[in-house]
Amino acid sequence: MKLSLFPALLAVALTASACSLDSSSSTEAGTVKVVIGYQSKTINTVTAGTLLKAKGYLESRLNDLTKGGGAKYQVEWQDYDTGAPITAQMVAEKIDIGSMGDYPLLINGSRTQANERSRTELVSITGYNPKGALNMVVVPTDSPARSLTDLAGQKISASVGSAGHGTLVQALTRAGVDPVKGVEVLNQQPQVGATALESHQVSALSQFVAWPGLLVQQGKAKLLYDGAELNVPTFHGVVARRAYAAEHPEVLQAFLAAQLDATRFLNEKPFEAADLVAKGSGLPQEVVYLYNGPGGTSFDTTLKPSLIAALKDDVNYLKSIGDFAELDIDKFVQDGPLRQAFAGHGNYDTALAERTNPSKVTGQDTTCGVAVTDSALAGEIWLDGAAAPTPSADPTCLLRGVQAAKAAGKTVRAVYVPDAELGTRWFADKASWLREGARYLPFTTPAAADRYRAAHPSAVAVSYEQAVTEVRG
């Protein structure tokens, strides 16, 4: 199907999705019910979804309200694969609070505003990447493609209206490929697209986390395009129905305070958090930790101006895929509730001004015998049976650490390293490596490695296995 058919298909999906659970059913008289829509496998929403649910922070805070003489509360969690059905349920007034990516948030705000009962506001951020690395394009492992231009005329799987699709449209446009006429985009759910990619029914898949990392980790795909090449912030956030929040402001406050609890826990104990998310989502912990670990997604609830500016720029994408009502972003974004919830969690304006990832790789690199100080170079080695991954000061030290572990007969479960050009945290054994003198440089994609070699002719391509074998102290 061509992109021109997507508006109708998206409308059908939204309408059909509105036929599911009624949030007002089976509620005890006098009990306030709150229905939370989340995406367990979209692991940049975990502080408002999977992790929040696993830790019970929301229920605990609502119980405190009850103990203090308030009403009784009932929390219902509804899990979805994408943001579209959450929006449909909010339009139908059957979900009160939901989390999704930036492009779906635009659709949510546009679709819900016609009715005051369903109208939503963006009240917090779950996680973000300042360059856009949360969305990626992958191809089959035997694909000859090395850049997006190689996909011209091919079929690409994407969930229309999702963050992954928004990135694809922008990336193809920048690469000089018409995102409507130059390729054939199939509107598919992530798991359907993954199957289509594996069976070569499509030449590529463009999706949001954690699908690219999962398929690459499973050996079913390789990375073709890192969304960080766009250098445009991408994020996930939380929307709440204004009518519900007006009727039950204490519930929204409890939710946002609980999200702050979950955010602090993830940033302080990322490895433990990844284990909980893996169990709650069914995703491998190695994949969850790729994104939720230090140096991955920036988990920060504040509504940063840079993210809101990017959201305003994304309105053009919204117009390109259908007839959506105009959305006033400044009215859609409301930081008042979060500012109120921040009491006891620090200063909101200080957190708002922070631009660095609150979770960094730190500690002592025991292989090279140095402290880990540069987050742009720091990686981690996860050995089977270890209590936690061990830090590495830079990619060369990381390779030496892997070499030493293998020489000692230890099993390496996963190795994480930041891309030398874009900073994206990635699997070291899936990266494209270059050797330049005594240094080793990892890149998320062959195209990135090609760009570096064009400016550094002395750099030589090596495989990960070769780099581990030949690296010297």
From TrEMBL:
All copies of the SsuA/THI5-like domain together span 122-273
Q: Mind telling me which SUPFAM superfamilies this protein's record contains?
A: Periplasmic binding protein-like II (SSF53850)
Protein's name in the database:
Nitrate ABC transporter, periplasmic protein
Signal in keyword set:
yes
**InterPro entries of this UniProt entry?**
SsuA/THI5 (IPR015168)
Q: Which PROSITE patterns match?
A: PROKAR_LIPOPROTEIN (PS51257)
Entry keywords, A to Z:
Signal
Q: Where is the signal peptide?
A: 1-18
Q: Which Gene3D superfamilies match?
A: Periplasmic binding protein-like II
> Is tRNA-binding found in the keyword set?
no
Q: Name one Pfam family in it.
A: NMT1
